[in-house]
Amino acid sequence: MYRHLASLKPLLKPDARLAYVVGDQMSFFRTHIPTAKLLAEIAEQIGYGIEEIELWRTRMATATKTQIDENVLIIKSR
User: Fold this and answer.
1) How far apart are CA 21 and CA 13, in angstroms?
2) Is there a contact between 43 and 50 (Cβ–Cβ < 8 Å)?
3) Could you list the residue range(s) of the whole structural domain that residue 22 is in?
4) Is 77 helix (H, G, I), strand (E, B) or coil?
5) Which helix (H) or strand (E) holds 61?
6) CA geometry: angle at 53 spanning 68 and 24, to 5°?
7) What is the pLDDT of residue 52?
8) What DSSP line would sit under 7-44, residue for residue?
9) Which residues lie closer than 8 Å to 17 by C-beta, 6 or more apart?
10) What is the bridge-based pairing of β-strands 17-23 and 49-60?
11) In this predicted structure, what is the pLDDT of residue 50?
12) Which residues pair with 49 in a beta bridge?
């Protein structure tokens, strides 16, 4: 995702917005991985602004049978 976001940056107009629907992960050992938050940190390192992380839906994790979130990550070019 770092390379993807970095390659898009020079092609975008200032203040362009990107939205990604990403699901959190729950490993077999029940380690929660907040995917949207991690991608937001990567985008900030590249120079994007973070507009918001909004809950899209909650889904059942296949391995652990627990509810985990899917979020919309909205980032903005600068």
Assistant:
1) 22
2) yes
3) 2-76
4) coil
5) none
6) 25
7) 97
8) HHGGGSPTT-EEEEEEE-EE-TT--EE-HHHHHHHHHH
9) 51, 74, 75, 76, 77
10) unpaired
11) 98
12) 76
H or E stretch covering 66: none
Structure tokens at 56: 């899209």
Please tell me which residue, 61 or 28, carries the higher pLDDT value.
61
1-21: b or e for each residue (b if 16 or more CB lie within 10 Å)? Answer: eeeebeeeeeeeeeeeeeebe
Do the Cβ atoms of 55 and 69 come closer than 8 Å? Answer: yes
Q: For the chain, how many structural domains are there in total?
A: 1
**Range 15-19 average pLDDT:** 97
Tokens 């050992």 identify what position?
Answer: 29
Q: With cut-offs at 50, 70 and 90, classify the pLDDT of residue 75.
A: very high
